[in-house]
Amino acid sequence: MGTEKRRVLIVEDEKNIAMLLSFNLGRAGFETDVAEDGEIGLRKALGDKFDIVLLDIMLPKLDGFKVLEGIRTRSDVPVIMVTARDDEKDKILGLENGADDYITKPFSMNEVIARIRANIRRHKDEVVGNADGDGGVITVRGLSIDKNRYAVRMGDAELELSKKEYELLLFLMQHPGVPFSREDLLDKVWGYGDFIGDVNTVDVTVSRLRKKLEKDPSNPSYLITKRGVGYYIQ
Ligand code: CA
To answer: How far is the CA of 74 from the centre of ligand 1 (A)?
Structure first.
């Protein structure tokens, strides 16, 4: 893996926050670059090689959602959205906009660093996983997931899943019949350790997946709740 530093792009217009992030991430061994508005942020994210982008939402010139849209037309770099308000958080959870994660202001530096590491690690595992070419189609009663093509089908119909919906489904389908707790899933799918992450994120993703997979999402036949334990695929 070498000692090459991971590069973080900080897109943030509040100078104090940008400096605080830059300073602390530098101390934690990252190399950082700061963009002060959305346009510069998008240009840098697409023009330069970063391992992860920390993206504020309220930005001059181009807001964070627009920047993310622009990034996703050409890049799958992990993006952590930084929200200041609950309604922004709702928008991130509600939209399938290609964000990998979100952090709410005010945040602790430990949390930011832990999430950056978790998301970079997940992304790398994914890239390795995609490249290993081990055939990789898993099928459960007409529901199939193709690891190499990043595609999910129900019968002949291709399903449009967000990144996390896909990753959660893939993980559960790789372990059919085995229930995992929400904490386990946060750890395995989101890459979070014990002290970060909100288990509700898992529930939200499960509920969105059910709407796409199940004939009757309130009475699921694929993605099952194991009472007092968690979730599994049957
Ligand atoms: Ca801002």
So the answer is: 24
CA nearest to 82, candidates 61, 70, 100? 100
d(CA 36, ligand 1 centre) in Å: 9
Query: Taking 50 as the threshold, does the pLDDT of residue 197 lie above it?
Result: yes
Return the closest-CA partner of residue 76 out of 130, 21, 12.
130
State the distance from the centre of ligand 1 to the C-alpha of 88, rounded, in angstroms: 12
The model's pLDDT over 47-75, given as tens digits with 9 standing for 90+, comes to 989 999 999 999 999 999 899 989 988 88
Tell me what pLDDT residue 133 has: 44
Angle at 203 between CA 136 and CA 154, to 5 degrees: 40
d(CA 18, CA 8): 12
pTM recorded for the entire structure: 0.62
d(CA 5, ligand 1 centre) in Å: 26
Tokens of residue 182, six digits: 């929400």
What's the CA-to-centroid distance between 203 and ligand 1, angstroms?
A: 29
Give the burial class of 56: count Cβ atoms within 10 A of its Cβ; 0-12 exposed, 13-18 middle, 19 or more buried.
buried
| 35 CA from centroid of ligand 1 (Å) | 11
Q: How far apart are CA 25 and CA 112, in angstroms?
A: 9
Length of the chain: 234
In this structure, is the dihedral angle defined by the CA atoms of residues 32, 33, 35 and 36, taken in order, positive or negative? positive
